[in-house]
Fold this protein.
Amino acid sequence: MSSRLSVNKTYKQFVGGAFERSESGRSYPVSGAGGQLLAHAVQGSRKDVRDGVAAARSAQTGWAARTAYNRAQILYRVAEVMESRRDEFCAEVLRAGDGQSEEAAAKEVAGAIDRWVWYAGWADKFATVLGGANPVAGPYFNLSVPEPTGVVGIVAADEPPLIPLVSRLAPVIVSGNTAVVLASERCPLVAITLAETLALSDVPGGVVNIITGRRDELAPPLAGHGAVDALDLSGCGPDLGADAARQAAATITRVVSASAAERQWAEEAAQSPYLIDAFCETKTVWHPKGR
Amino acid sequence: MERAGGFNLEYAPAPESVAPVRLASQYGLFIGGEMVEPAAGRLSATVNPATGEALAEIGVADAADVDRAVAAARAAWEGGWRDLPGAERAKYLYRVARLLQERAREFAVLETMDGGKPIRESRDLDIPLAAAHFFYYAGWADKLDYAFSGRRAASLGVAAQIIPWNFPLLMAAWKLAPALACGNTVVLKPAPTTPLTALLLAEVLRDADLPPGVVNIVTGDDVTGAALVAHPGVDKVAFTGSTDVGRAIGAELAGTGKRLTLELGGKAANIVFDDAALDQVTEGIVNGIYFNGGQVCCAGSRLLVQETVADTVVGKLQRRMDTLRVGDPLDKNTDIGAINSQAQLDRITELVASGVAEGAELYTPPCELPERGFFHPPALFTNVSTAHRISREEIFGPVLSVLTFRTAEEAVAKANNTPYGLSAGIWTEKGSRILWMADRMQAGVVWANTFNRFDSASPFGGYRESGYGREGGRAGLLPYVELVA
Amino acid sequence: MSDLLAAEPSTGVADAVAGVRITPVDAVGLEQRAAGLCTRSIKTSSKAAALDLSIRVMDLTTLEGADTPERVQALCARARRPDAADSSVPSVAAVCVYPELVPVAAEALADSPVAVASVAGGFPAGLAPLEFRLGEIGWAVAAGADEVDIVLNRSAFLSGRYQKAYDEIAAAKQACGSAHLKVILETGELGSYDQIRRASMLAMVAGADFIKTSTGKIGVAATPPTALCMAEAIRDMAEQTGKTVGLKLAGGIRTAKQAWHYLVIVGETLGGGWLAPERFRLGASSLLNDVLMQRSKLGDGRYQRREDYSVD
């Protein structure tokens, strides 16, 4: 019987396009559905959050300046690469999940891939649907366009491991925002595998930054960071959510959280152009019409 | 310009008649379709800022009154407004719009008496735009299915709306019209210094047969506002006012699940390139900063002018300032009326003094201010640095800071060098430069070759610390609906 | 020159008006400012002063093929004393006629403060051969015209032959001798406020003592924004060169209210120094009666009957 010792993956955080350990040097054990140790994930620190925001901030202008067609192709590329690594994602979801069936895991991965495809198509359409010309009562051309708000902090929900993250991340970045994600505390590993996929998909470094660790510790500094323009706190419980929202209020940062309907993660109700809009600013430009 | 041998074009006083206005000595709260006494019987005077004299005693609502108002709004929502066909809600709003148009002069005079803004502005802008806003959103009430792709719009419930003193009736219209069109009921809190047109609006709402409780108006102070925001029966809070209060409201609502939109302060850049139409630029700058005495959150309070034309522009501006007429807000020829309150005048005065102390050069035209009331002359600061308080803090008064730039990149950097992001102005005859600049402005409204234009069809609202959410246009519906699949 | 070239990269008007900067005009902003000025409320004492000023700056005009010496004589009589019943009414600034009637007007207005103005230079098209146009100007001046109203060569201006348009005005100025030269831009034919501003600067630099809106012979005449546009050009001219140029508004001005709107526009744009016949004129044929009616109403509070006023 030939046995081969497997080569285990080290799961690192994803910041500025690089996979790194925490500056704090900390890690924490992540267990699978059966209680077995899967890996030691990085236990990120406030400074890692800060570095993530800095990376997101410096990547944002360039990402937003890409053509919508280009962002569409990159998001579609994410779906292509995930599709090619479907088995890996299924295995990862299965290991991490709370006793999901293989069938459920496969369905979740397929749903996550399809969600990227769905949002990829919105890149060059949402401005048409959400913006437009306003017929003002005067000799003016008046146009409203949704623009990315900037850097978005996302606290990902725990369960199931993959599709909630994709469902909240894709609408954020499709418009040109960059993101700092606090991965699910309980199931962080698949988020890092997703990061590997992003790194292979021409998503520029810094557009998505994924921090793993303790939500209680990391969500408040993320929410209170002055350079964060909007927050998705779908993964925060009531107390943490309230605390983070208080932090956000200090810098007039809007807070979004998934509705009950949107938490039917596999359903169509979980995806919407209005979720793109939630992380956009409407900019309205006036110009006189004269000879 | 020489005047010798010419003719001094004086304008004789041309006061608007106050005859249409019938003031009561005392006003209560509008709750459940009735004017009621505040529970604790507390009253506070509202003052005419042009004279310093009290106009009337206004009820100060406390937590018990707020509770009554929220209960009335809740009952009205559950008792029918929520389920009323959109076409019927539309007709109520159309009625309100028409009644406002019919009584426009009365509203304009009252607005000017209570708030101090020139009658020219309340007559030509505030009141017509308020009526237009109701008319515009009336039309949306039965067309919400067309507003949101693939989603149905459901009302939220009771909206708490807190409005400022700079455009009292207009802000009431901006808040009420979309909320009601979407099927919500409202508790509205006007600003303490300018409650009168909101209370006159209550009369209009009654005349329109709006069902009792659909709109409730609670006058009062910041305690009233705090009680309203914190009330558990409120589903949605919409606030227009200072950034500091916006922060406090955000913190108060944290974790409650109540929805929030904020329209806060600003420190807008008005950017002038050397190829611009300089005489219209001059008008645009004046309109940008001296409109409503600069008491406008989107005021163009930072003039960024390209160095090559800085002297020319400042020269034109100073001469234009010399023709501005400061004085009786009811006079039809007044360009700059009274500052809204003593407190606001004190703040403006303090910031102007800081500008002088920090080394900026102040210009104010020779003009006689009325002996009583709260007045401030139009002011212009040159030699301003980006570090000066006057170029960073929102002054909310007729005070302009002039800074210069050399390149478009520098203009962008300076324009965005503020925590605010409400509005921006761009003046250039080069179309591609306008679009390049507009792309880079961190501001919700960009006026190119114009400034301070408003329309019910046009979304208004800010980036960053100027708040979130939009008022006006289709975007203005979003804060008042839950989108369901 | 250099700043001008920067502002005017393509029009070439730069060469003709070297040394002054021509700023672009935003039509909507201009029209809004003009409309705003027209909401100024003129009451009581201001109205009385404005009405008298409107008369003092008026160029009482008749430019019909059917003008006869008798008609011109009657007009001159009104010009000297607009209201036979009220000696407090001031004289108008000038009477404006075709050249052939200049001697009639000169005789009728001798020993009066009222000037004789003549259109000349191939009015209203300005497309007679230049030598004839200059000859006509010289003839009118010799016949007693104190002021000469010529037209801008729009054919040259609109086809970009700015130097030609400029040279013709300069030549006309010479032909005028000591008479004042008013250059009619015929703004209704220029197509945009930018063009009006360019034409204004060109005429002023070429030597115009006044720039004037219209001939009165086409549908579009003086409008508040046009007046404002030209007043702003005059202001720039004064600022940049120190030269003061007058403004004449003509065509379609029929009511006292229109007249004081123009006074407000000029007064607030150029200052009170311009509100005098030396620098401001209203060219009109039927305005006088309305001003007199308003003046009378202001005096006794009664509205007047149009039939009670002269039909000349």
